[in-house]
Amino acid sequence: MKKTYFLIVLVLLLAGCGRKAVITDFNIVPEPVFMVQKEGVFTLHGSPKVSMVNLGQNSPIAKYIMKSMRHGHLHPSLVSAAEKSDIEIVVNDTANPEIGDEGYVLEVRSDGIRLSANTEQGVFYAYQTLVQMLPPDITQTNYSSITLPECTILDYPRFAWRGAHLDVCRHFFPAKFVKKYIDVMANYKLNKLHFHLTDDHGWRLPSDRYPKLNTIGSWRVDRDDQPWGQATPPQPDERATYGGFYTREEIADLVDYAAARGIEIIPEIEIPGHCCAILAAYPKLSCDGGPYEVQIGPYWPPKAILCAGNDSTLVFLKAVFDEVVEMFPSQYIHIGGDEAVKDMWKGCLFCQRRIRAEHLKDEEQLQGWLMRQMEDYLKEKGKTVIGWDEVMEGGMSKDAVIMSWRGLQPGMDAARDGHRVIMCPTEYCYLDYYQADPRYQPASIGGLITLAKAYEFDPVPIGTNSYVAANVLGGQCNLWTEYINTPTHAEYMLLPRMLAISECLWTPQDKKDWHHFRRKIEDQKDRLAAKGYNYCEGSFTPHFRVTRIDDNTVNVAIETEVPNTYIFYTTDLSTPTRSSSIYIGPINLEQGTHIKILPVYNGQERDSIYEFVIK
Ligand code: ACM
Ligand code: ZN
User: Is 199 a catalytic residue?
Assistant: First the structure.
């Protein structure tokens, strides 16, 4: 008896002692189209009343919202639409033309919060914005009250296609992690998960029709104890123990999970190249009969290719696509088409016979023919195909969507030709590239895309012809996983750069502001940490802005990409420490000065000493 009494008092005390939060400004990513803050406030107390209008309380999105509020210690109680509530969630009776299918209006008024949209998806995004207005540690701290400034937000996306890609072939990631990936995409209003499911290094889909895809194609010799670039070749009798594939139940669960968060999963089945996993299982589908093995480590040039002259290849692919269509309800199916080395086709009697029979000019056109066969087949099933930009070289029907990765130009050319296009140029969107000084980062495939660089991404740069612009559906970031073998490392490469890509795809170009964004990221890091995501702190390489004062003197402004970095420096060739001069604003230096910099962030010395000679 006594014990129970004590417990109740403790719970009441704890409930009464919850912290109070007073929010004065917001750090919303992606930046909303229109946001105005007003004088008054509204205070959300422990158990807000929530009403829903035109939104069934059993709809996946309504369930998501209620569950998420509970997770954030908001203890919501659902009341009828007629009753006065603290948070009113409305799907409009009459569509508001300003906000389209995915936009929303969020109002904080003195008497409550109102989220409204034309669709459930819009409501979902209004809710994501609301969450970002609450304290970052809301899931960990019990707030007794949260006071918000009165404000109105009207928001809608710049692009319809706001994607993130995930390669689960080079390394396999469990369904649980894919859900975590989906969660963070949804938090930042991305709506397409490009799921790269087949490649030289593994086949990740379940197949009833071709079981060797799973017994053989899903497994490779394990070299995860060696750097990807230096993996030693497999021995003849070595067992293939690394890999796996999703079950049908897992795929169905992922598709539903994503849909409840407004995300369409687009499966990619890569043809005709990047197919070692297929050929290891079914070597007869190659031009030379094999044998092939599921690749480990770097495999370049990727010469394995499906024989386009062999009718069995078409039978196989159609059966595989039947299974894919059964599993994925998406409008789009990605059929790959990149980096297909066609040397094998040149020496193959069947492929050459196909070229002649179909009156094709060359092997490029043979790839076009094969891709179109699959496109026609999938069209009959109501699907739209996507191909990497190389597919333009073999000719595709105008209905095929082109994914432009070798720069923006191939996408621009395809859009001019009348194709719809998705932009993901390596220069901005390849999140497997380094994101800070490679000397202090985990090994990556190469390149350098800092947060600031990713933030420069614009799928439709100013001056783009309006016909071309109208054909650009949007863009996406790509996460290839050769060098990424754990969920925490995948998160590290994705975050926070995915947030930059999200703002580039959602926010109007003239509302983007790098300096504002970089400050918002500091708040977003707290949000990511509270949800258990790993992220990169950013690039601490100092950048200089030099202005000439006179013949000998220049004025030097220094900053890193990360705000709140303390810059300690010396100009006498000594090694800077935390006792050295601290940079507080632009300094005048003689030309030729040798400056050494120690960046310190969050109490930690970052990277190492950076040295520059001021020119
Ligand atoms: C690609 O990165 N090969 C599409
Ligand atoms: Zn062939």
Answer: yes
